[in-house]
């Protein structure tokens, strides 16, 4: 019989709508103003700190919803933003600089919804408020590091091949390593040996006698820049996790830019302190045989560099870098057997092998830990960004007692707080290339709340206008279309809440408004086709059947073309454009489901399979 649907189809559609409704429910619970407190500089968030803060809030007449420890961080929820701001002042004053106290917004989803994985939609900065940073990666520093590594590698390779050289020197200003030999035969042998080990090296003859310039090929330069950018993105993600921000966004922009968005965070100073830290460590051997006095007068022996310790003591170190901070996988502060602060370090497999090889023949020699930090200067580069100045100091040097591996420790640190700070920085990751924040924007929670209210108002007025039009023009069939439209909105919100990477932005809300208008297009096509079938003299059941079947091809074609445009926008767009494309694409798919499948079930339920003389359409 025409227009009769089996029971399983009704159960399937109702099940899909119920699932969407359940996963859309968390969006009805507003987020709580909250404080997120984590230990990053010499402190540990303990139960005692939690209890002390809770008492301090009570004494200040601040009504906290809850103050709990979660995964080593303290989360305090409040009823109003006024209480939140007042509580931050109390927490900052009580805890000092050893802790990060960040303003945040915490989801208030009930436990039973959390148990099934239901959570509210992720909101962008324009709706939730938060901090936006645009960071520039200093690619020259990454290339300079590779040139310095090339210099040390060339020296080691030539010694291994027993080829005597006069000088091997990295020229960072011109971007090459200058190799000077004693005669033409040695120069040819050196060039052949180095080329054999690395075929991507580019050798250029020099005007100097028996000298050649070795530079990095264009392909390798691009690889270095890509690697530096991707590694920095990974490290910044780790640092964001140290702050404890929910749903952060860290992504690349262009060839040397990184975008960081921290929704809900309002304390930019603390965020910048963690994200903008550009410090790292290098481990080098101390040259105790060289004349330190001559070095202080400017006569620095080849293969060495002059450094100073924190107390101003000069130290001559070998140029060869034994290990850099990029191989550190773990770091923790503790005390040695003499109750002096120390940092225990764990390395990855490659770093452990490098350090083991470097210290194999260096037992009894002194190894120095060099702390390197980049700070912006008053000078600007060609792009108008401040030029970073490299500041280096020796934080400790100790005698190598045995061959080192993947686990070792550094001592001679001034205070436990400094040891904790250093371990936190190393644990979060040492940046492969320095970065600096070149753009900073803060969107307050009040502005985000206003954007949500305006966007919701636009969606509701759009729905009301469509609902009224459909009822007036299509009567009872218009009511069916309106039910499908409401179901479509529930599906959009439910799907957006279920997709992990989907973020709702203000342009995304515009996409929902557009979808509301487009969602009834399919029903308009179907209903007009049913009218035409009735005018052609077909029976009611035939008109319903042919109306849905023959309109389906047109509906599919029109929506597929729009979906392709949405996919293109998502693929090439950034930020707000992606937000618009996501809601548009989801809205197209859900509108096809509700307008074609959903309304057909309702029409068949009320008018299908019966002897009906006319339709209220």
If you had to describe this structure to a student in words, what would you say it looks like?
With 617 residues, the protein is an alpha+beta fold. It has four domains: 7-26 and 445-607, Multidrug efflux transporter AcrB transmembrane fold (Up-down Bundle), CATH 1.20.1640.10; 32-106, Alpha-Beta Plaits; 140-220, Threonyl-tRNA Synthetase, Chain A, domain 2 (2-Layer Sandwich); 279-430, Gyrase A, domain 2. It has 17 helices and 23 strands. It has helices spanning 7-24, 47-59, 81-95, 111-115, 125-128, 139-160, 184-197, 218-243, 268-275, 292-296, 349-359, 416-428, 445-498, 506-519, 521-535, 540-572, 576-607, and strands at 32-39, 64-70, 73-78, 99-106, 122-123, 130-137, 165-171, 176-181, 201-205, 211-216, 249-253, 257-263, 280-285, 304-308, 314-318, 323-324, 328-335, 341-347, 366-380, 386-399, 407-410, 435-443, 503-504. A four-stranded antiparallel β-sheet has the order 2-3-1-4, covered by helices on one side. The radius of gyration is 33 Å and the shape is elongated. The two termini are 22 Å apart. Belongs to the SecD/SecF family. SecD subfamily. Keywords: Cell membrane, Membrane, Protein transport, Translocation, Transmembrane, Transmembrane helix, Transport. Residues 435-596 form the Protein export membrane protein SecD/SecF C-terminal domain. Residues 305-433 form the SecDF P1 head subdomain domain. Part of the Sec protein translocase complex. Interacts with the SecYEG preprotein conducting channel. SecDF uses the proton motive force (PMF) to complete protein translocation after the ATP-dependent function of SecA.
